[in-house]
Design brief:
This protein is α/β, with parallel strands linked by helices. Helices cover 43% and strands 13% of the residues. The strands form three sheets. Strands 5-3-7 form a three-stranded mixed β-sheet. The longest helix is centred in the C-terminal third of the chain and has 24 residues.
Length: 151
Protein backbone atom coordinates (compact mmCIF):
# COMPACT_ATOMS: atom_id res chain seq x y z
CA UNK A 1 0.00 0.00 0.00
CA UNK A 2 1.67 3.23 -1.07
CA UNK A 3 0.67 6.76 -0.42
CA UNK A 4 0.45 9.77 -2.76
CA UNK A 5 3.43 9.26 -5.04
CA UNK A 6 4.56 11.74 -7.67
CA UNK A 7 7.30 12.10 -10.23
CA UNK A 8 8.27 12.62 -13.82
CA UNK A 9 5.96 11.78 -16.72
CA UNK A 10 3.01 11.00 -14.46
CA UNK A 11 -0.60 11.17 -15.58
CA UNK A 12 -2.06 14.69 -15.42
CA UNK A 13 -5.23 13.25 -13.90
CA UNK A 14 -3.23 13.01 -10.66
CA UNK A 15 -3.04 16.15 -8.56
CA UNK A 16 0.77 16.53 -8.36
CA UNK A 17 1.26 16.39 -12.15
CA UNK A 18 -1.76 18.57 -12.80
CA UNK A 19 -0.46 21.28 -10.45
CA UNK A 20 3.15 21.09 -11.66
CA UNK A 21 2.17 21.40 -15.32
CA UNK A 22 -0.32 24.21 -14.64
CA UNK A 23 2.36 26.12 -12.71
CA UNK A 24 4.99 25.58 -15.41
CA UNK A 25 2.57 26.81 -18.07
CA UNK A 26 1.74 29.76 -15.79
CA UNK A 27 -1.97 29.08 -16.24
CA UNK A 28 -3.91 32.13 -15.13
CA UNK A 29 -5.62 30.20 -12.33
CA UNK A 30 -6.08 26.72 -10.94
CA UNK A 31 -9.23 25.73 -9.07
CA UNK A 32 -8.55 23.57 -6.01
CA UNK A 33 -10.17 22.21 -2.86
CA UNK A 34 -9.45 23.93 0.46
CA UNK A 35 -6.29 21.78 0.69
CA UNK A 36 -6.61 20.94 4.38
CA UNK A 37 -6.37 17.22 3.68
CA UNK A 38 -3.19 15.66 5.01
CA UNK A 39 -1.31 13.32 2.72
CA UNK A 40 1.98 11.46 2.70
CA UNK A 41 3.64 12.61 -0.54
CA UNK A 42 6.48 10.37 -1.69
CA UNK A 43 8.73 10.80 -4.73
CA UNK A 44 8.57 7.88 -7.18
CA UNK A 45 12.27 6.94 -6.82
CA UNK A 46 11.66 6.41 -3.10
CA UNK A 47 8.64 4.21 -3.88
CA UNK A 48 10.86 2.07 -6.14
CA UNK A 49 13.63 1.84 -3.56
CA UNK A 50 11.11 0.84 -0.86
CA UNK A 51 9.66 -1.87 -3.11
CA UNK A 52 13.17 -3.08 -3.92
CA UNK A 53 14.00 -3.24 -0.21
CA UNK A 54 10.84 -5.23 0.56
CA UNK A 55 11.45 -7.65 -2.32
CA UNK A 56 15.07 -8.17 -1.32
CA UNK A 57 13.96 -8.97 2.24
CA UNK A 58 11.00 -11.19 1.31
CA UNK A 59 12.55 -14.20 3.04
CA UNK A 60 12.12 -12.38 6.35
CA UNK A 61 8.32 -12.41 5.99
CA UNK A 62 6.03 -15.33 6.62
CA UNK A 63 2.48 -15.43 5.32
CA UNK A 64 0.74 -12.25 4.26
CA UNK A 65 2.20 -8.88 5.20
CA UNK A 66 0.68 -5.49 4.46
CA UNK A 67 3.48 -2.95 4.16
CA UNK A 68 2.67 0.72 3.82
CA UNK A 69 5.00 2.71 1.58
CA UNK A 70 5.39 6.41 2.21
CA UNK A 71 7.63 8.87 3.98
CA UNK A 72 5.57 8.65 7.16
CA UNK A 73 5.20 12.43 7.18
CA UNK A 74 1.86 14.18 6.78
CA UNK A 75 1.71 17.38 4.74
CA UNK A 76 -1.38 19.39 3.88
CA UNK A 77 -2.32 19.30 0.23
CA UNK A 78 -2.29 23.10 0.32
CA UNK A 79 1.30 23.21 1.56
CA UNK A 80 2.36 20.69 -1.10
CA UNK A 81 0.74 22.79 -3.84
CA UNK A 82 2.18 26.06 -2.52
CA UNK A 83 5.63 24.42 -2.50
CA UNK A 84 5.19 23.49 -6.16
CA UNK A 85 4.19 27.06 -7.01
CA UNK A 86 7.17 28.50 -5.13
CA UNK A 87 9.74 26.07 -6.54
CA UNK A 88 8.45 26.52 -10.10
CA UNK A 89 8.45 30.31 -9.72
CA UNK A 90 4.92 30.30 -11.10
CA UNK A 91 2.50 33.17 -11.42
CA UNK A 92 -0.54 30.86 -11.46
CA UNK A 93 -3.30 31.99 -9.11
CA UNK A 94 -4.12 29.08 -6.81
CA UNK A 95 -7.84 29.29 -6.00
CA UNK A 96 -8.18 27.20 -2.85
CA UNK A 97 -11.74 26.33 -1.85
CA UNK A 98 -13.21 26.70 -5.34
CA UNK A 99 -13.63 22.91 -5.73
CA UNK A 100 -15.58 20.75 -3.29
CA UNK A 101 -13.76 17.87 -1.68
CA UNK A 102 -14.96 14.43 -2.68
CA UNK A 103 -17.64 12.82 -0.55
CA UNK A 104 -16.10 10.62 2.15
CA UNK A 105 -12.56 11.82 1.37
CA UNK A 106 -10.28 10.93 4.29
CA UNK A 107 -8.90 13.91 6.17
CA UNK A 108 -5.56 12.23 6.78
CA UNK A 109 -3.62 9.47 5.00
CA UNK A 110 -0.09 8.90 6.25
CA UNK A 111 1.89 5.67 5.93
CA UNK A 112 2.92 3.70 8.96
CA UNK A 113 6.57 3.12 8.03
CA UNK A 114 7.47 0.94 11.02
CA UNK A 115 8.08 -2.19 8.90
CA UNK A 116 10.07 -0.30 6.25
CA UNK A 117 12.24 1.32 8.90
CA UNK A 118 12.84 -2.06 10.55
CA UNK A 119 14.27 -3.22 7.20
CA UNK A 120 16.63 -0.26 7.18
CA UNK A 121 14.76 1.76 4.53
CA UNK A 122 14.52 5.53 4.67
CA UNK A 123 13.34 7.90 1.94
CA UNK A 124 16.19 9.64 0.12
CA UNK A 125 14.19 12.59 -1.21
CA UNK A 126 12.60 15.19 1.01
CA UNK A 127 9.59 17.06 -0.37
CA UNK A 128 11.56 19.94 -1.89
CA UNK A 129 14.10 17.63 -3.54
CA UNK A 130 11.44 15.43 -5.13
CA UNK A 131 9.33 18.35 -6.32
CA UNK A 132 12.40 20.14 -7.72
CA UNK A 133 13.53 17.04 -9.60
CA UNK A 134 10.05 16.59 -11.06
CA UNK A 135 9.73 20.26 -12.00
CA UNK A 136 13.15 20.26 -13.69
CA UNK A 137 12.23 17.23 -15.78
CA UNK A 138 8.80 18.60 -16.70
CA UNK A 139 10.27 22.02 -17.53
CA UNK A 140 12.83 20.44 -19.88
CA UNK A 141 10.15 18.24 -21.44
CA UNK A 142 7.86 21.26 -21.96
CA UNK A 143 10.74 23.22 -23.51
CA UNK A 144 11.54 20.40 -25.95
CA UNK A 145 7.86 19.96 -26.79
CA UNK A 146 7.46 23.70 -27.46
CA UNK A 147 10.58 23.76 -29.61
CA UNK A 148 9.36 20.76 -31.59
CA UNK A 149 5.93 22.31 -32.26
CA UNK A 150 7.51 25.56 -33.48
CA UNK A 151 9.42 23.74 -36.21
Amino acid sequence: IWQQFYGEEDDESKLPSKVIRACLRNDSSLDLTHGNQIRDFIYIDDVVSALDMVLSQNKNFTGYSSIEIGCGIGVTVKSFIETIKFLSNSKTNLVFGSVNTRTNEPKELVANTKILKSLGWRPFYNLEMGITKTIDFERNFLSIKNEYTRQ
